[in-house]
């Protein structure tokens, strides 16, 4: 079994390679480097709370286009902006695509609730339609 720290370092290297030159990545790195352990736990809790809103909408049987689902998706975007980098609606829709196309993201969401990756993707896209 591989060491989780090795996997984390691998993901960090991949992120740096893919997005290291972007302003969003650099801003995220600046913010993260200034956070205390408590700040990091608060950021994680905020992410979890926002995602739970999406899961709650899904569990209620609401379509991803519902106000509840799109508001929850928007809350997820605001958490990213608050804690990591300014996440524009366009950037959020790009992230949503990764949630369904990258097997690691898909697996993360699917372990939370079956079908969540696609539901979250659809709610994000619905939240940011003009």
Short description, anyone?
It is built from seven helices and no strands. It is mainly α and 130 residues long.
Describe the structure.
This protein is an all-alpha fold. It contains seven helices and no strands. The longest helix is centred in the middle third of the chain and has 23 residues, at 37-59. It starts with a helix and ends with a helix.
- Cα gyration radius (Å): 15 Å
Overall, the morphology is: globular
In oligomeric terms, what are we looking at?
Answer: single chain
Report the sheet with the most strands, covering strand number, pairing sense and barrel closure: none
Strand content: under 5%
User: What order do the SSEs take from the amino end to the carboxyl end, as H and E?
Assistant: HHHHHHH
Task: Round the mean pLDDT to the nearest integer and report it.
Answer: 85
Number of helices: 7
């Amino acid at each position: 079994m591989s060491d989780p720290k090795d996997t984390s370092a691998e993901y960090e290297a991949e992120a740096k390679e893919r997005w290291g030159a972007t302003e969003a990545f650099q801003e995220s790195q600046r913010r993260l480097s200034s956070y205390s352990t408590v700040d990091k736990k608060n950021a994680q809790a905020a992410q979890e709370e926002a995602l739970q809103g999406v899961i709650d909408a899904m569990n209620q049987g609401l379509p991803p286009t519902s106000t509840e689902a799109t508001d929850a998706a928007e809350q997820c975007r605001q958490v990213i902006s608050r804690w990591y980098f300014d996440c524009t609606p366009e950037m959020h829709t790009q992230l949503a695509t990764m949630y369904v196309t990258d097997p690691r993201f898909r697996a993360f969401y699917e372990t939370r609730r079956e079908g969540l990756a696609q539901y979250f993707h659809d709610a994000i896209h619905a939240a940011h339609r003009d």
